[in-house]
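User: I'm writing a tutorial on reading structure tokens. Could you give me a worked example: one chain, its sequence, then its tokens, then a sentence or two explaining what the tokens reveal?
Assistant: Sure. Here is the example chain.
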Amino acid sequence: MRSLPSVRCCLFALVVSAISVASFAQVSIAIRIGPPALPVYEQPLCPAEGYIWTPGYWAYDYDYGDYYWVPGTWVLAPEAGFLWTPGYWGWGGDRFLFHEGYWGPRVGFYGGINYGFGYFGNGYEGGRWDHDRFFYNRSVNNVNVTNIHNVYNTTVINNTTVNRVSYNGGSGGINARPTHQEEAAQRERHLPPVGAQTQHLEAARANPELRASANHGRPPVAATPRPGAFNERGAVPAREAGAPYHPEAHGGAESPRGNTSVPRPENNVPRPPAPTHAKDLTPHPRPAAPNTGNAKLDQKYQQQQEKLYAKQQQEHQRLQQKQEQDHQRMAQQQANEARTQQMEQRHQQQTQQLEQRHVQQQQHMQQGQQPANRNQPKPPR
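And here are its predicted structure tokens:
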């Protein structure tokens, strides 16, 4: 029980941080120039079974006002049956916005970007799960069959015109919209990037050679066999830039006038990612049984915890159902992009307020129980 308040305090801090970062990303920085083209590179050898390819992409460093390359890498799937939906840059009407990637049972919309190696703009052709084993399509993946036997060969016919454009919408961007299947995938249970991916991103951000202004769209490390393995033997450089890179794109971010005191976010991918929908929230664990040494008091606290837990679960489910109904109604009405965006912003605000309220409720309950806990005699060892 002693550790639970500290965990909730940390969670509360993370939620507040996520809300703050999300709001800063919306109002403090305007990226007017899209990321460089995707570089041309080879895929490193898959290190072991269960690893899934996550393609490289251009992220943005607000401190330097520059894009930087996050190398493609093999990542161990967080759960059997889960696939990676890559993140992508999209034009939001007055600036470029980054849509973070996620793990889920199906691959959702990733901007129609042709990342290669099975990610050809729609879905994923690089492999499939069979119960708890992942089978690799050798026609698009670099797999050593001596070490990995669960493979197959399916030729992929890519009807998409091959280009290296790395963003959706805007001037020169990919003109693609999510299908009904991709919209359905976005509403399923998701997991954010795993810890290894976060560390991989931060390592790329800290490497000056990966900035677009330094490598001109041709990063010296384009892909790695494992996250963060920039200096390992299997890391590969880009063969060439996807298109000529113009240095004047450096510094393409603008701060709003008269608001220079607004802090800048640490990265274009907020950490932790701000949840957009109730289904994106990590379920709260069931509270542990109190152990004050007083059986009656423990029973009282247990009832309080279970009552709050059940109430929060119901509120979570109601909000999730309401948001799903909103999505269905918008789809039936064939709402335009502006209305859809307003709905998504409203959903994000609802979700963050719900999570903040739940964390505060848990924190308040724990604080109310702590003094009594300290006054009770300790149980014998």
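What the tokens reveal: The first strand starts at residue 30 and ends at 31. Residues 295-333 form the longest helix (39 residues).
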